Amino acid sequence: MARSRSDEIPLVRVSELQKYFWENDSLLDRLLGDEPVAVRAVDGVSFDIYEGETLGLVGESGCGKSTTGETLLRLQEPTGGAVEFDGQNVYDLEGADLKAFRREAQAVFQDPFSSLDPRMTVGRIVRQPLDIHGVGSKTDRRTKVQDLLERVGLAADHVDRYPHEFSGGQRQRIGIARALALEPEFIVLDEPTSALDVSVQAQVLNLLDDLQDEFGLTYLLISHDLSVIRHVCDRVAVMYLGEIVEIGPSEDIFESPRHPYTEALLESVPRASTEERDRERETISGDVPSPRDPPSGCRFRTRCPKIIPPDDLEITQPEYRAVMTLRERIESRNITLEAVSDEAERSDGDLEVDSMDAFVQGLKTQVLEASLDPRHQEVVDAAIADLAEERWEEAEVRLAEMYASVCEQENPLLTQDDHPAACHLHDPPVIAEHTIENP
Amino acid sequence: MPSIPDSRANTEGGCEMIQKPLLRVRDLETRFFTEEGQVNAVEKLTLDIHDGEVFGIVGESGSGKSVTARSVLGLLESPGRVTGGELWYRDETFADTVRADHPDAVDGDYVDLESLPSNVRRTLRGTHFSMIFQDPMSSLNPSIPVGEQIAEAVEAQRRARANPRSVASRTQGYGLSQYLMSTVMGSRKYVKSESLERAVELLELVGIPDAPLRAKEYPHEYSGGMLQRAMIAQALAGEPKVLIADEPTTALDVTIQAQILDLLTELQEETGMTILLITHNLGVVARMCDRVGVMYAGEIVERGTLADVFDDPVHPYTQGLLGSIPDLEGIGARLQPIPGNVPSLLDHEMGGRCYFADRCPKAMEECLEHPPEFDVDGSSHHATRCYLAETTYSEARALDADYFGSAEPLEDAADEPVEPARSDGGNTEEDSR
Ligand SMILES: Nc1ncnc2c1ncn2[C@@H]1O[C@H](COP(=O)(O)OP(=O)(O)OP(=O)(O)O)[C@@H](O)[C@H]1O
Ligand code: SF4
Ligand code: SF4
Ligand SMILES: [Mg+2]
What we know:
The structure holds two protein chains of two kinds.
Chain A: E1 12-23, H1 27-32, E2 37-49, E3 54-58, H2 65-72, E4 80-85, E5 88-89, H3 95-104, E6 105-108, H4 122-132, H5 138-151, H6 168-180, E7 186-190, H7 198-215, E8 218-223, H8 226-232, E9 235-240, E10 243-249, H9 250-255, H10 260-268, H11 317-331, H12 337-347, H13 356-367, H14 374-388, H15 392-403, H16 406-409
Parallel strand pairs in A: 3-8, 3-9, 6-7, 7-8
Antiparallel strand pairs in A: 1-2, 1-4, 4-5, 9-10
Chain B: H1 8-11, E1 23-34, E2 37-49, E3 54-59, H2 65-73, E4 80-90, H3 92-99, E5 106-107, E6 110-112, H4 118-122, E7 129-132, H5 146-162, H6 167-185, H7 193-205, H8 211-214, H9 224-236, E8 242-246, H10 254-271, E9 274-279, H11 282-288, E10 291-296, E11 299-305, H12 306-311, H13 316-324, H14 347-350, E12 374-375, E13 383-384
Parallel strand pairs in B: 3-9, 3-10, 7-8, 8-9
Antiparallel strand pairs in B: 1-2, 1-4, 4-6, 5-6, 10-11, 11-13, 12-13
One iron/sulfur cluster binds next to loops of chain B.
């Protein structure tokens, strides 16, 4: 597909889309005075999808991929932002316009086992959208359903069978036939092959490819599988914790990723080849933080192997990563002091309980992931000594003064170019001249 | 006294593994007796697994991978039963322990686990064989703090080690009453503090940050990756010789999968344990395994070193599997799917032919007779259940395209001429040996 399409009008334009879910929002919670908590599933994403292309949306579970897909189809009400389809704001549509949108934009979902009503025959399942939209006469519809089934590789005489009589791959074909019934322009494919075996997945991917060519379809393909994304998509958007961190032509994303998260994702996928054994790869540590309380600044900073140290600080990347992880845990009070005191007691036979040194050393082995240069060791030891007296804030401040990163203070914005990435390493000059020492 | 059938890996020269295999599985058969009929989940499965290696079993859903693992562990539940075959495990001490009571089950330092009564076999669980699963909650109790559960495993294993001959049933009873008590009485401690210390060490070993704190938390307070680590810690409590890992990373995101795979590699290198890794992910196999067996319809259809199977596959199913995966490294050409679906494994539907014949692009007349396992030239570990190991494909003997009827009209092959497997065009030898 064309690379630079900025002069074209996109079929779908998503601007600053937000979708929050609320917890503690029941009447009882309000009576008890519990504050509602926002789960920021989608937090201001923007992207365009051009006619005839496949845009991939990739990211780890819970990062907001499916919510993005559902919200842009108006299957969920947005918390904020807008989606334009063919130039019209989807959330303003009513009556006939809304109905037209419901025909033009369809979805295929992940689970071929639960997304089909087990009590309906395959014929009725595929025909249902035609019935709802009152398309053609009864015989027209029946012929149409048979055509559709044949087109997706099933047999016309399957109309009277029930979903349980079909294998996973066949059920996914039924779901695709249903999505095609109204001759849509645009289909959101949400993990369409994740429940399928690889040999069957290949059948379905080929089918989707053929249908796109034949009907000039535009796809948004949501998947966590990078190989599938690479195989199918023209452009790719990478999501992390409710935000898009990088978007660009497929080839660029895979050949020269710009965001450290994209790099980490690509590194992590084990390749099915005999060279995989010896492939050196850098894995990232830690888990995805909760969307209830996402990190300040760059949301990837709690795991980023390239997090940017202050300009004037001399520190290696592993040291800095270790210090930042320690700060993280101090700030969330996620350290047990008592267990370390116990340990100090145990190892030195109850004499050393009060010994600050034993405490500091003990805690340090618990909580610090790398050994530090003496300069940094001194600061960290002092902070840990603060903890011994439960002076959490002092420890926090002591470390923040020395180690605060631009990555925790400012949310990086997507750059304005062909292949935007939201990372301070790609900020426009002036701030961007950080030298990162990699291990 | 029975004797152990010889295996290729041993009889052929030039094999770098001089040691006798740790496990010799011979013609293992597992059946499920269901209402629809008899399901042949594992069919004449033969394997050698060596000390300290990582052996992979790869295959699609329903091919019998998990049932194989459970059969090896003796963990099958009704209506499943091992109906045939032998499972020789090499352990001198264990052989000495059971020799007096079960002379028929012992041959030198090998014991045939299939001919042991289940209560004796159970003593091996945790201490010799351990298993981890895709879903950590299948081995962790939601109402007991994680540390305590691991400590419990530590105690049970200590007991079992101290007296391997008789504790079997007591271990069970102890576990059960302990379980009942701890569910009734919440988190009161019923484990010794030294076991708890060991549990914290194990949690540290598997990379749980701040293990002393985490040990006191309940499973629901753990993230998916940490639960996986906790389950691994629990499985390691008895310092098993063999770890069976059934899809240990399938439910995890790729960045977490990478962490868990690295952890398994590290633990394997540190402890020297043997790992039987079961997965449907060919990338995971390539990352982790020394040797691999490809399962289809309850059989190992091809096995060998990683290079044998990935670089020189002979069985059209193996080739098809490799050709079906989209390539991360480049925009691949059109994928080459295997037409059709995995068969049902119902005994009365399987017939006597090669089980893959109805999907095989190279099915020939001889394939109507079930193929035995053939050696493949060039590598002492490489074997396959396919005539192409010995014969060249010939159009003349090819079966008609609709020989098996077109019951499954969904073949992609319907719109394109069938060309055998492999998208990269690399290994599609028409003359496959
Ligand atoms: N409890 C059971 N009762 C009846 N049949 C069973 C039972 N468990 C497994 N089977 C059958 O045994 C065969 C092999 O199943 P198994 O679970 O070993 O497959 P698998 O290769 O592990 O698949 P997956 O990749 O989906 O985990 C299947 O045909 C399955 O239906
Ligand atoms: S902004 Fe900072 S923390 Fe975020 S990805 Fe870039 S370097 Fe890493
Ligand atoms: S034995 Fe025949 S049918 Fe079976 S895989 Fe080999 S060539 Fe195909
Ligand atoms: Mg399984």
